[in-house]
Structures are given as C-alpha cells and as structure tokens.
Amino acid sequence: MNKPLTRIQAMNSSAILEAALEVFAAHGFRGATLDQIAEVAGLSKPNLLYYFPSKEAVHEALLAQLLKTWLDPLRAMDPLGDPKPEIMGYVARKLELARDFPRESRLFANEILQGAPRLRAVIEGELKTLVDEKAAVLTRWMEEGRIAKMPPVHLLFSIWALTQHYADFDVQVRAVLGEGHDPFTEAGDFLDLLFDKLLTP
Questions:
Q1: Using one digit for the tens of pLDDT, what is the confidence trace for 34-77?
Q2: Any residues with CB less than 8 A from the CB of 159 and at least 6 apart, and which?
Q3: CATH architecture of 1-53
Q4: What three-state secondary structure class fits 44?
Q5: 63 near 86, Cβ under 8 Å?
Q6: pTM for the model
C-alpha cells in the first residue's frame, strides 16, 4: 500500500501535472519533453523523475484525471429525470468543461488524433460502456415519445463536437467572431435553441 504524500510531495506532484498539462496541450505527447515540463514546473529534471519515472507516466496520470472530469457530466444524466432538461443540462455541462478546461480538452483531442495509444483501452471499455448505457436511456425516451427519434449515439457525438469545438478551436472561434463577443455565452444561447428544436417530438 502506497504511503500518503507529504504536503511538499503533494505540492510538487501537483505542480508537475499542471506544468505537464500546459506542455502537452501546447506540443502534444510527441513534441513534449521532460525538460520542458520540469522547467515550467520550476523543478529540476531529477526532482521530476523522483515523482514520475517517465514522460509516459506523467501523461498517463494526466489522462486519468482528465477522463474522470470528462465522463462525470454524462454519468450525471439521470435516467429517471425529465428527458429534455437532462439532455440540455448535459450540453450545458459539456460547454462549461470546454470553457473551464480548454487545455484538458486539447490534450484529449491530441491523444485521439494520434490514434489514442494511451487511451484506447479506456475508450473501448469504460467510455463505450457508459455511452451504451446512456444510449439505451435515450432510446427509451424516444420510444416513449418524450423526445424526437434519432440515432442516440450520434446525438451524443453531436453534443461532444458542438461543445468541445469551442475549446479545441478557440483561436479560430475568437478570430471569426471578432472583438466584443463572449463565445461561450453565445454558444450556450445557440445550443439551447438548437437542441430545444432538435429534441422536440
């Protein structure tokens, strides 16, 4: 059983993961180095290696944190709730994640674009199981006539695409909108309108 980290160890570990998030989000896994991560964390490379034995270990720790954050909003969709508010709430939570955790979103996107070598087992296991479970809930709601009929998994894909876009393509979004716009407020209003119309039977 691992000993609990001391306060200093916990602070250093947190600093390393925060620095790694910045470096991986900017350069991807292949472009990032332990030297870069150590520099951003304000630690020596040997000190970093005391906590994480390799770049892969740092990356895996980050991805483990990220997946919990990323899957929690979908887990929160209540099968016993009112369908449209449950789905609209999920859309809102995903947009909030894109707003509050843009580096994490880009880290996830970079991993997927590289073929998900460090995430494939989770994608094919935990994520697929959760999606299948929620797709069954959506299908039941559709069969009960409570929301419009459509392919449930593609509905979830569309929610991911329409929310994570605002984090992954932030520079493009802000350049096209121009000054004086709040992308996430405007996106929230638009997605409310879009999904309200889409889901109405």
A1: 999 999 999 999 999 999 999 999 988 888 888 888 899 999 99
A2: 87, 90, 91, 94
A3: Orthogonal Bundle (1.10)
A4: coil
A5: no
A6: 0.85
Q: In whole angstroms, how large is the CA radius of gyration of the chain?
A: 19
In eight-state DSSP terms, residue 182 is -
Provide the token pair at 134.
């929620």
d(CA 168, CA 187): 14
Q: DSSP secondary-structure letter at 82?
A: -
Parse the chain into domains and list their residue ranges. 1-53, 59-199
CATH of 59-199, one of 1.10.357.10, 3.40.630.30, 3.40.47.10, 3.10.20.580: 1.10.357.10
Looking at residue 126, what DSSP letter applies? I
CB 118 within 8 A of CB 59: yes
Tell whether the model's pLDDT for residue 121 goes beyond 90.
Answer: no
Cα atoms in the Cβ-side hemisphere of radius 13 Å centred on 27 = 15
